[in-house]
Amino acid sequence: MSLSEVKAFVFDVFGTCVDWRTSVIKELKQYVKPISSSGTIDYEVLADKWRQQYYTSMQNFAKAQPDVIPDVDAVYRNGLDKILAEIQEEINPINEDMRNELTQVWHRLEPWADTNIGLKKLNSVATTATLSNGTVRLLLDLKKSGGMPFDTIFSAELFQAYKPHPKVYMGAVKLLKLKPQEVCLVAAHKSDLLAAKQQGLKTAFIYRPSEHTEHELDFTDINMNSIENLAEYIIQEKK
Fold first, then answer.
1. What one-character-per-residue DSSP string does 181-206 give?
2. Does the N terminus or the C terminus of the chain have fewer Cβ atoms within 10 A?
3. 120-172 pLDDT, tens per residue?
4. Element at 134 (helix H, strand E)
5. Tens digits of per-residue pLDDT, 2-39?
């Protein structure tokens, strides 16, 4: 389906624009050390558990306190404490300062190799923005540390709701002063894209092997394997 009428592309960030898993594993290795020289830690599993703790906590907030917007840093810190408690007998002690610094890894995640060049190309023909459940502060830090050239920052925090709540997608549409069909959500996650489509937005699926097992989704307007490829396609469509 044509995306030639799209005037703004709003991006999920975690997993879509940044490779959170590699960045988190790298820093976990710096801070979380086995007590025994022969001990081993599965850092990939640890990173996935940490991220899952975040998802679980946010879902619980949404159900129990839908009008409360939790502090994402606190959610990540609490999640870190829980996963470290599970292996506390196997690792060297990690003090408060170390835990706080490790939690800040979510503010300095590295972009995928195609992200920045893709955004730069897309900026030549459309507006680009984040549309993430991360806070404004977190997204600004990621934008600056990773050099991601978004035109602007949209956070679910601005709309006092979290994706996949309709308020987030329609809030972005309203701020952009566009029609839903003139805004395209770019994401690597099925649930996010489906929620956006239900609100009338266009949708672009970016295949990231570490985020989704399917190479294509049958309900999206387009399926791509990189942001750069998406940008090149849109540039050609708009000629």
1. GGEEEEES-HHHHHHHHHTT-EEEEE
2. C
3. 999 999 999 999 999 999 999 999 999 999 999 999 999 988 888 999 999 99
4. none
5. 899 999 999 999 999 999 999 999 999 999 999 987 77
d(CA 120, CA 118): 5
- The CB density around residue 209, as the number of other CB atoms within 10 Å, is 9
Helices (H), the chain: 20-31, 43-64, 72-86, 96-103, 115-122, 136-146, 166-176, 190-198, 227-237
Asked whether the beta carbons of 220 and 238 are under 8 A apart, the reply is no
Residue 80: C-alpha distances to residues 12, 52, 96, 100 (Å): 23, 11, 11, 10
| The dihedral sign for the CA sequence 144, 149, 151, 155 | negative
DSSP conformational letter for 130: E
Joined tokens for residue 33? 């050390």
Query: In angstroms, rounded to a whole number, what is the distance separating the alpha carbons of residues 68 and 195?
Result: 21
Residue appearing with tokens 């997608």: 169
Of 205, 210, 237, give the one whose Cα is nearest residue 223: 205
Token pair listed for 180: 């839903």
Return d(Cα 144, Cα 157) in angstroms, integer: 19
Global pTM reads 0.93
